[in-house]
Request: fold
Amino acid sequence: MANDESVYRTRRIGALVVLAALIAGIWGIPQLLANTGQEVFPTEEATATEEAIPAEITNCAPGVVSVEVMIGKLISGDADNQVVETFNSFASNTNPDIWYEITNNGLVDCKFNVGSRVTFFTITSGEQTYWSSRDCDRTNVTDRFVTLASNTPLEAAASPWEKSYSSENGCNPSGNDLVPTAGATYKIKVEVNGVISEEKRFILN
Reply:
């Protein structure tokens, strides 16, 4: 009889263990799915080419944005905190730096694309185009949407022009000739997302 009671207790304990395992399994399934969902759907982040722009800020209206082309020298700093000086005559041993200033002339902040995909510099003399950034390697060009605050000019990063022609070979001196200097006069303009600046004259000595 004692043996029968021992067997009964053993079987009852075994049944309780199985039941506990089943309950744990049922509870664990939704927890597992929840964890998997968190891994598969991480928190969204702004892309590298677009700022985290509030939803209420809409695209800039046509005609509200103006662009001014700049030419001179980068004195110090980087794209986020640069110090530049504008001038229009360059010594023979100096490469000009080119950039632009963009302004939202409207009454409210708005969103505008200033990415490399929609930005083009052009340098001419007379009727001839000597250099165009359209000829540069455009493999990795991107869109970049930024918020333009009302009536607050925003300055683009300055980059050097190495005084070369551009062509199907690209837009740097590798594979291209240098442009005439010794007092030659040129004009530069920029287009940003369809907005075109006025031309500025400069001299290469």
Notes: Residues 1-43 form one domain. Confidence is low (pLDDT under 50) at residues 6-10, 15-48. The two ends are 116 Å apart (CA to CA).
